[in-house]
């Protein structure tokens, strides 16, 4: 089975801002262009699940307007990581001691008192397990952190132990990638897709 991952359009925030779980909008023109470019490339009848955050909903709405064959629903497990008190701050304004504490306990540190990487991985893992159980191709409209988590989970890594284990390469705004997944029964038996 295949899972298409689509990242929202460029958010309307200042560069260098931590905006994880903040409900910021995306650039409407770039979002529409992304939907138009992808509408003809995706297969018919995909189950489309979107993060409930506005920047993803904008793209989901634009894509579903062009592709009414998609069954669209929201899934809060596809939201970006919640950075707590860091939300809305410039990354370079976060206290060095807090950032160092995160790097020292990359999977367990609750960033800004919000969410940890372990919590992000757990909820994305649950969503991925549900998608595998459904056994049909799907499309997620989501965020950079969720895309990276899916890449790790699809490679059999349930939890990165240090920051260097986190995928460096991201998915550009408004871009998609397709990941082949083993269906649930093959994943449990250890088969590969």
From TrEMBL:
GO molecular function: kinase activity; phosphatase activity
Protein's name in the database: Phosphoglycerate kinase
Organism: Ramlibacter montanisoli
Pfam assignment, any one: His_Phos_1
PANTHER family noted in UniProt: BROAD-SPECIFICITY PHOSPHATASE YOR283W-RELATED (PTHR48100), HISTIDINE PHOSPHATASE FAMILY PROTEIN-RELATED (PTHR48100:SF1)
Gene Ontology CC terms, in alphabetical order: cytoplasm
Record keywords, A-Z: Kinase, Transferase
InterPro entries hit by this protein: His_Pase_superF_clade-1, His_PPase_superfam, PGM_Phosphatase
């Amino acid at each position: 089975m295949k899972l298409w991952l689509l990242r929202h359009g460029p958010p309307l925030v200042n560069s260098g801002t931590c905006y994880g779980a903040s409900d910021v909008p995306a650039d409407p023109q770039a979002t529409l262009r992304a939907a138009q470019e992808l509408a003809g490339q995706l297969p018919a009848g995909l189950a489309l699940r979107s993060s409930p955050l506005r920047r993803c909903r904008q793209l989901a709405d634009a894509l579903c307007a062009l592709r009414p064959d998609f069954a669209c629903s929201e899934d809060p497990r596809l939201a970006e990581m919640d950075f707590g008190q860091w939300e809305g701050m410039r990354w370079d304004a976060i206290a060095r001691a807090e950032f160092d504490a995160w790097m020292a306990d990359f999977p367990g540190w609750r960033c800004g008192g919000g969410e940890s990487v372990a919590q992000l991985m757990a909820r994305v893992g649950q969503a991925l397990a549900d998608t595998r159980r459904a056994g049909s191709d799907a499309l997620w409209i989501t965020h950079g952190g969720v895309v990276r988590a899916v890449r790790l989970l699809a490679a059999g890594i349930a939890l990165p132990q240090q920051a260097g284990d986190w995928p460096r390469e991201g998915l550009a705004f408004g871009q998609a990638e397709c990941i082949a997944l083993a269906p649930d029964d093959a994943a449990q038996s250890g088969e590969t897709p």
